[in-house]
Design a protein that fits this description.
By secondary structure, the chain is α+β, with helices and mostly antiparallel strands. The protein has two domains: 9-163, Jelly Rolls, CATH 2.60.120; 186-278, Homeodomain-like (Arc Repressor Mutant, subunit A). It has ten helices and eleven strands. It has helices at 126-141, 145-163, 174-183, 192-199, 203-214, 218-236, 241-247, 253-264, 268-275, 279-287; strands at residues 9-10, 19-27, 31-36, 41-54, 57-59, 65-69, 74-91, 95-97, 103-108, 111-116, 118-120. Strands 1, 2, 3, 4, 5, 6, 7 and 11 form an eight-stranded antiparallel sheet that branches. It has a three-stranded antiparallel sheet with strand order 8-9-10. It starts with 8 loop residues before the first strand and ends in a 19-residue tail after the last helix. The relative contact order is 0.09.
Length: 306
Amino acid sequence: MMFRFPRFVIKKRDGEMEIQIRHVVVCRAAQETAYSVPCPTISFFLSGLEFHESPGFRIDAGATGLNFNPQGTPIHFRFNEQRENYAILFDSADVRTGALPDRAEIRHAGEWLSVPLFVPVEAGRLDGWRLELERIRTAFLMPTAKNRLRAELGVLNLLRHMMDETSGDGGVSPADRLKQLIDADPAESRTTDDLSAECGYSPDHLRILFVKAFGVTPKQYRIRRRMAEAMEWITGSRLSAKEIAGRLGFAQLSHFSAAFKTIHGMSPREAVRRFRRTTAQTTAAAASPFTLHEPATVLPAGCPSP
């Protein structure tokens, strides 16, 4: 049975999430039900799960770990008699449905950060996490000033742990995955937001991870990579600046020229004059009497010729 306890608010400081806790409960009864989640909920499955479904996402029987559902998520689940799970229900304007069916998003410091809906916890770590959830529940039931802080840190620690999980894409980090997608799309046929969604992260969150990994934002990396490719076309092809701009997805030559000059310190036309060889120059270089050849092998006296 679920009881309504006195509420307390996790105060927003320096852009942190604002959370108003509704309940912290432990559920041990067998149950099967389907409903729309009334408020953001963090659950911790310890035992007895037979299945847990939301649109496009399923957690299978026997799974143990942390589950996060934004408000309004339709869910269907079944637990058997061995059920043990904690649930933290709270109100927050800083939670929303994610771009992918297995993701939610939380807002921190004005940016939306991606959180997986489920993070598995190994059997050997269940007792430690059970203790952490019990501490949060105890703090909620006795909301003194110190316990408010304990509960706040506990909830944020749960979300931090879930948020820090990578996409699980063969060990490739989300930042590396985004870099791969950018490298494969030099003409920018897809926006950075679209590529971020394919990585399973919000643009804000992935920008933070990308800067941490590479020292530049995805937008900065993308323009630098395009301009590096533009220089390769200039030095190694007969294409005009307008043709190169078109191949790199620029609708206006002026935009391409401005971006090129920002990165390389010169216009595309100047780069052509300075770095592109003419056909005559290439032919002359090949026929030049000053072309270097491998020196003849000099053998010590008395050695037979090879």
